[in-house]
Amino acid sequence: MPAPPSLCDLFSLRQDVVFLDHGPFGACPQPVFAAYQRWQRELEEEPVEFLDRRFDALMADARRARFHPGMRLWNGSGNG
């Protein structure tokens, strides 16, 4: 069984720089950034379809996922 990646491997940060704190800049893990880019490409390819026809349903799905009992996502309360 392969070893899990180290946390450093999940980020695109330069390996020759020691970051003590991401602070307010918040480096984004690569899988999250890749998902963001997929959504961005979808928006750019068909903005009317995305914003006018699908946006409300996509937001409703996101809100449901945000409050899914099995998920540990930030819920806006500060309680993680």
From TrEMBL:
Keywords: Pyridoxal phosphate. It comes from the Bacteria. This is Aminotransferase. It comes from Candidatus Bipolaricaulis anaerobius. The lineage of its organism: Bacteria, Candidatus Bipolaricaulota, Candidatus Bipolaricaulia, Candidatus Bipolaricaulales, Candidatus Bipolaricaulaceae.
